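Subgroup meeting minutes
Present: P.N., E.W., G.H.
Scribe: E.W.

1. P.N. recapped why we're keeping a running log of single-chain structure predictions: easier to compare across weeks, and new members can see raw inputs and outputs side by side.
2. G.H. added today's entry (383 aa).
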Amino acid sequence: TEADILGFINFDTLIFIFAMQIVIYFATEDRVLEYLAIQLIYVTKGNNRLFFYIICLFTGTIVAFIEDLSLSLILVPLIYRTCRALRIPAGTYMMGMTISINIGAILTPVSSLKNLIIGAEFGWGFAEYFMNMGLLFIITLIGTVVAMDWFILRDEKRPTETSKEVLLALLNPRIVIKNKKYFTTTFMILVSTFIFMIFGFEPALVAIISAAFLLVVHVKDASFSDIKEDITWKIIIIFAILFILSNSLAWFGFSESIANALTSILNGNIYLAVIVTLGISSGLSAFLAGTPVTIILLPIFSEIISGGFMPNPIIIAFVSGVNMAGNFLPQGSACDILTLSMAKKYKVVNLDYKRLLKNGAIFATFHFISVFIYTMFFTLLVS
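Output recorded in log:
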């Protein structure tokens, strides 16, 4: 029936997607994220290695709260203009940014739609994500940035003192603020949004209230009819269809059949269950977009966990696999594709598909090994 079909749809996720698009629209229009990024770039004083570390650590952390594509759209032009002023190639800095984004996506329930869906299924909020994924996030992000600096960046061209002076003369974070009142209000609402989410309030509810506040604050200069063209309605429709498809498979017993087959193979071995979860989620997400993979696999892993397996190690492997596998192949990550297209637009000489594929695969392998070791130790400690 129609009621059954509607029951398959996770409306909280759809509301969150819709509301956060409005929140990010105003954060971008009022240049909150751009201001923060320029402030950090200014702190580097033109030191290219410090600039690389700050860009990677900033993106890896902030993407835990801000949608990855919006962040890339803001940061890629800033990285390009900064590198142009310093007279150094921008490719490695852009590559570090996009790889860091895929790492940061594991940290919170709102850092990716994949996490939101998984968190809703297994009851993981901010506290659970921080406790289970926090150490893995720190290890992989710092390890990746240090390795990229040591093996890639240190052999590249460095800026001259004159170039550094030019950059500092050009950079003034305050010039990006168009309207101080809107900037301050949007910044406060944005920070409050994530504070309320961290303290356990329902993300969809917090996001829709924040979006409503922002619309009221900007009512003189912007209305919903003005911004509706900037909302990607297609993604909301696609997710609704995917939820119906995935839950229909579960309703007809398809997911249960696969889960039962896997459970019989696993034979109660939690270590093998973690390896299988990590392998399947990583393998599929390397070639396909991670969110559809998550929606399709979720009923299967949920059935496996309900069969008596310890949940947290399997969830850690699942979250890590669908998020960080995007670094294996660029087409597995929308952020990678966007970064490559913008690098081509700006004629960046040292970043193309081949280079991102090669380096992304190397670091994705490092991430896979890190996740494998982490989940094995985690399982050993809690079992």
